[in-house]
Amino acid sequence: MGKPLVFPDQMDSKDSITKAQSNFFVRAQASIRVSRALRWWENTHKPNMREIHSAQELVYSLLNAGDKLVIVDFYSPGCGGCKALHPKICQLAESNPNAVFLKVNYEELKTMCRGLHIHVLPFFRFYRGAEGRLCSFSCTNATIRKFKDALAKHGADGCSLGPAKGLDESELMTLASIGELPKGLHLKSSKEERVEDFEDFIVRSIDLPGVWSKTGNKTDLIKEETAVGVSYNKTKLSGD
């Protein structure tokens, strides 16, 4: 426990010392069990709840979530409000299996959180597909209605056109400037890459009377008429 051990004077015999060591071992084991039990943020995680360990993992988790609703939960192990709210968040995650809950430990990722302007805990951000961030707010056990209302509003399955957006561009630049993201990071979702691979496959495989030109995020077919000209060299024939 980080404190000096003081043994009474009467523990002079070998048996007494052995007994004292045994008691200390039992206390240490009990202390370890209590310490693990106090790690409330690691308990009752549901299949759709995942811990985030880096800024890069957060970025890719948002990009690869597709059209699913993503809820980012910023918390701190020492936050009493976070601890009190945690069981209810787990219940809501269980009743909304199609939503993705990403948990961010403020103490482990303090630099990233500050770069995202997270200054109060617990704090939540809702994201979906190409729409990007839908809303953000702080709530406690007493104001859980705010979370439930946001979940009711944005929780319905939706289909957004285009790849997932994730963090704002300004936030990505901030995280890169403070060393939380590598500069020039490849920020394409797996869905976006699959679309591009499919377009490339079409270009290589299909023979059409036209030229495929890729402009931005869409592929346009530009018709190119082909004129086949036959030239004749007229030769004057002399008489027999």
TrEMBL record:
Pfam families: Thioredoxin (PF00085). One of its GO terms (biological process) is cell redox homeostasis. Belongs to the thioredoxin family. Keywords: Disulfide bond, Electron transport, Redox-active center, Transport. It comes from Hevea brasiliensis. SUPFAM superfamilies: Thioredoxin-like (SSF52833). GO terms for cellular component: chloroplast. Residues 26-156 form the Thioredoxin domain. It comes from the Eukaryota. This is Thioredoxin II-type 1.
